[in-house]
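Entry for iron/sulfur cluster complex. Fields follow.
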Amino acid sequence: MFCYQCEQTSRVDGVNGCASAVGNCGKDAQTSDLQDLLIHAVKGIAQYAKRARDLGAGDNDAGKFILYSMFTTLTNVNFNPARFTSMLTEAAEIRARVKKAYEEAAAAQGIAAEELSGAAVWDIPTETNELLAQAAMASVRAGEAEVGEDIVGLRALILYGAKGVCAYAYHALMLDEQSDEVYANLESTMDFLASDPTDVDALVGQALALGHTNLTVMGMLDAGNTGKFGTPEPSAARISPVAGKAILVSGHDMADLAALLEQTAGTGVNVYTHGEMLPAHSYPELKKHAHLAGNYGGAWQDQQTEFANFPGPILMTSNCIIEPAASYRRRIFTAGPVGWPGLRHIENHDFSTLIQAANAMPGFAADSEEESITVGFGRDAVLGVADVVIDAVKAGAIKHFFLVGGCDGAASGRNYYSDLVDQTPDDTVILTLGCAKYRFNKKDYGAIGGIPRVLDMGQCNDSYSAIQVAVALANAFECEVNELPLSLFVSWFEQKAAAVLLTLLALNIKGITLGPTLPAFITPPVLNTLVEAFDIKANTTPEADLAAALAA
Ligand code: SF4
Ligand code: SF4
């Protein structure tokens, strides 16, 4: 096992990566190796799928498999080795199908089909032990002795970014949004990785191209959410429970939540959001359900305590799951790409078992004193008051904007983000998104001209909204985004954040402060390249970084 895809990777004794029997997230070596092998199989599918699509024989079902299987390998998504063995068997079938389609399309057009090698011709075993015996060739570090760690690190940057793009594209797919262009770009990306690339310029170019693809995907996800659930609007989200039976929904998948709200309507069971489901309270078609009772708890890393105390069943719709404690193991359910050995997995949005479990549990005995926070400052809400914001900037009432967002995590250094926001001057506005906001979203930072100083824009994928706001402000002030009084503090943890980072770089956004620690797969020479091209900075202290941002 070797894995260095997330921020909490092991950094002990000079080894940057989880390389023991169990990673810091709880992923065991068997699961980790099977995930690497699944990625290898996806590369093989992509080799044929890309060429078939180039000849007009695209296979979007193969594309959907790529999205789903890549998503399962993200940090804190699927820890069930049995699921990976069965996905590898399915991968072999899909690869055979796209190979046949490619060869038939080539024959029909009088073209000689290429004889592919590597992942395309890997003889995929069906038995777990036989698979594991071949894990070394699929390791993210395979070939490092020949090409060096810088090249392997750049390949990893693309792979992890692609995983994030696939996760967002899967969320969009659940909202009936998909695109031939996105499937084509992802197939090209994985085909590129299958070629074991070594050219630095080509690797950087592919990473930036992937960033552009992710912008398209985040736009699709935005269209899916707003198309199904309406435009987010500033709304009060109750953060104190009410009496009654209760279900808690975590993860990011609004389609799951919508289906659950429909199925619980009129049953007397209340539904609570957890973690990245918080923005649900701002979507008209979700918040119209009176039994969407509130938001419970905070970011993912506190779930073992929070889930243990929740008096009802829990649904994990996507990342970030961590090992369920015995106290709630029998009442936590998974859906979609999520998996944990022994947990009940819900298929096809049929939540009847979950609802039965809620009815069998006590729920909340009494109402707690009402408390709420305001969510729902998506791009329409912010741009709806653009005139007020622009006038406030011109009058000097708003001197600077900060985007402080991304992932949260368990590391103590993540207090950096709450300390930073605490110290921002009163004449500044903070845009936030992702679960990093739980470190400060329940505090009152005041308002400027009636606009709250901290504006919650939603999930991490709502970076799309933040980008649209930045572009609109730049247009209003007739300048480039990089010339705005705007500083970005991106908190990364896992691969969705890697995809968002690539999007920001692809848009040539400069001066991003990235933390709380830099990715282990970014080697010093690669970091130098990013610093020279994009002026990326690593966190230092809130005081120093804030002073530098305000002085820029
Ligand atoms: S996902 Fe992160 S914590 Fe888990 S094994 Fe990989 S690097 Fe380690
Ligand atoms: S923002 Fe990142 S760390 Fe937070 S719940 Fe989502 S995937 Fe996990």
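NOTE: The radius of gyration is 23 Å.
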